[in-house]
Write a structure and sequence with these properties.
Largest sheet: 2 strands, antiparallel
Low-confidence stretches: 169-173
Number of strands: 2
Radius of gyration: 17 Å
Order of helices and strands: HHHHHEEHH
Shape: globular
Length: 173
């Protein structure tokens, strides 16, 4: 069974897919400054997952991501199909690694490019989850500005898909 924080990330990914369902390539590549395009945002979150979960295993699947959509990379509107293909490739490759994380290993600091990251794996996991929510709001705002309707307006079925884990609950009286 996956660690509860991994379950939260997976739920967040499912909400990400729900928020971006049916966005066209044309709309995904439109940029409404100062925001980036939706296709850039998809690539950017792919870059983060690649950096944290793939490169910490000393693997590189998509070496071009850092220059194209990494932190501080210039605004661009990469092709939507390439960004989704990259996202699916990275998240599928990351999942077996994420399944190995435990409360103990989440306290360890990652090593990327031979250098120890100043944050623990648990912090990186939470940072990734929160980063998705940040950009999900941005992407939905972009979609609203483009005139899209019938968009998600509330968090989905968290109670069934990623509930609070009662084994960690503390009773108070």
């Amino acid at each position: 069974m996956a660690h509860p924080l991994v379950t939260q990330l997976r739920f967040t990914r499912s909400e990400w897919l729900r928020a971006l369902k049916d966005v066209s390539a044309e709309d995904a590549q439109r940029r409404l400054p100062p925001m980036n395009s939706i296709s850039w945002i998809i690539g950017h979150l792919t870059w983060q997952e690649h950096r944290y979960w793939i490169m910490t295993q000393e693997k590189v699947l998509l070496p071009h991501l850092n220059q194209l959509v990494g932190y501080g990379a210039p605004a661009s509107s990469p092709p939507l199909d390439e960004m989704w293909e990259g996202w699916h490739t990275v998240t599928r490759a990351a999942d077996p690694y994420l399944d190995t994380l435990t409360s103990e290993t989440l306290q360890v600091h990652a090593v990327v490019y031979g250098e120890t990251v100043p944050e623990s794996m648990g912090t990186l996991l939470r940072r990734t989850t929160y980063h998705y929510w940040y950009h999900m709001g941005e992407a939905l705002a972009i979609r609203q500005m483009l005139g899209h309707t019938d968009l998600p307006d509330f968090v989905g079925d968290i109670g069934d898909e990623a509930p609070y884990w009662p084994e960690h609950a503390v009773e108070t009286h």
